[in-house]
Structure formats: C-alpha cells, structure tokens
Amino acid sequence: MTSATGPQVGVTLYSFTNEWLSRQFDLPGLLHEVAKRGLGPNIEIIGFQSLKEFPDISDDFAARFKDLIAETGLNPTSLAINSDRFLKPGQQPIDDATLVEYHKRQLRSAAKLGFPVARSQFALPVHLLPEIAPYAEELGIVMGVEVHAPMWAGHPAVQAYGEMYDKLNSPALGWIPDFGGTASRIPASMLDAARRAGAKESLLDMLKEIWLEPGMSHEKAGKLREKALADGHAPAHIQAASLAFFILANNDPKSWAALVDRTVHIHGKFYGVDDDGVEEAIDYETILPLFRDGGFTGTIVSEWEGHAYDTRDAFEQVRRHQAMCRRILAS
Description:
Keywords: Isomerase
Oligomer: single chain
Number of strands: 8
Radius of gyration: 20 Å
Largest sheet: 8 strands, parallel
GO molecular function, one term: isomerase activity
InterPro entries: Xyl_isomerase-like_sf
Protein name: Sugar phosphate isomerase/epimerase
C-alpha cells in the first residue's frame, strides 16, 4: 500500500492465467502463493475463472472461502462478473429480464463472499441499469463497469453510461478504468510474439502505423487485414499481429481525469515491466497521478495481460508492476 488514505495496490488473479490453466495452482494454493509473495493484500477474482459454483455460491463454499481469506490475510476487493447474453452454445440470447436476474445472481454471490465491488461489462445495456442499481444498493455492493480497450473515457458507450449515472445518482454504480485503453505504443513483447508466429517486419511496420491512426479499433484491424492481404501476408500472421487492436488502444492517457470522481476500482493493465521499472506500452507516469491527486483511495490491481501471448513469470511481472506503481504514487 502507498498509505492509509491514498491509492492502494493489489492484484487480480487473472494475471496468473497461465499458471492457473497449467494446473500449477488451485484456488487455495494460488491465494496462499499471492500472500506468501506479498502481492496482496487486496485481490480481485474472476468469478467464472476461479469459482466452480459461479454464478451461484453455496453457504458451504462461502464459509470455506472466508476461512481461506482469514488464513491468508488477504482482502477481497473486487469480483469480476459477466454480462453475457449468450450463455450456452447453440442457444438464443437471453432476454432483458433474464439478463437482469443473471446479474442479480452474480451480485448476490459477490456480496455473500464479502466482495464490496463487482466488475461488470458494457454488454449490459445502459437501459437496464435502473433495474439493477437499487438491488445492488440493497446488497451494499458497488457495480463498476470496466472501461476496457478499445474503450476509453470519450467512447460513445462510456458517455451513454455516464449520462445514466448522472440521472440515477446511485452510490452503487461506478467506473473501473482499464489502462489498456490508453496505451501509447504496442508492447515490444507483443511484437516479438507476432514475430515468433511468423509475421514479417513489413507487416509489423504496417501494424504500428495503422494502430496509431485515429478511429475505432475494429475499423483499423479491418484496414490492416485488407492492406496486408493485398501485400501477400498470410492470414495467420495477420491474425497474430491484429491482437494489438483488441486488447489495447491508443487514446489520450489524460482522458481518465473525466472518470476519477466515480472510479471505484482500477485495473492496472500492463504487458511487461523492464529492469528499469518502466511499463512497455502504458504511460503510468501520466496516469497514476491523475487518480492520486483526484482523491481516489481504492485499489489498483496489477493485471498482467502479457499471458495472452507470453510465458514470462507472472509473479515476477506483478512484483515489478507493484513496485513501479508504489514509486510513482509516492513521488
């Protein structure tokens, strides 16, 4: 932590996706490892990744989870819930009433496990917020929507949510910024992964040029595909390069200032921190002071998304990221 009154650091278990999928850890083992390495105490858990019973939670599991939290000395900070309409392959999307109830089930589980914040997604239509916010208030839980790349503070969907937030003025609604939406460059590690997949330098040069252009990410991805195919690049190589359009975006890092007042939790997205304590793609020196000086006192969880294409040690990456955040916040 930086101080009792300033932003705190923690970690989302999503950072350890490779370690989880390779069965190096089960949930108790992973939480004990996080605690042993001093990467908490504040933690975020992805409901559908880590909790077998989710979206519902039994009394027995809730009791065992709370015992585990007490054993490790960790602090449940955020539970990530999902806003999917397509719940099972081959089935029709669920209707609005079912989607509302689906969210209520997940919010009940978050509250039952002791999480004060539930991360939601923009797949929840803005017109359903008036039906869910009062229920979250009853539970005493805050539902924060994740502003994830390619979105940023100025995205139309974010603006629409902001208008509804103003209208409802509910203490149960807020923002969860994800810094991948305001990257300044494509991570070198991501470019290296594309090279390993066979992408040529000419394709990566084209990628870097188009990625910096204004416009929506899906449109820029389409432009890259069209130009690259015309130049004879293989579809598989184009696909490897195109990852950059969908998990990070090039928007103004200072734009987060517009969301500080209603920010309830932060995803400190990162792709790699070097030996000098500098993140590969995101300008943390600009972003973190916006929240610190704006009065944010919640948690910034380290979220290493390099696992999508890299096999570096996630625990070491999180350690480096937290050290970087503490240094910047203390400056």
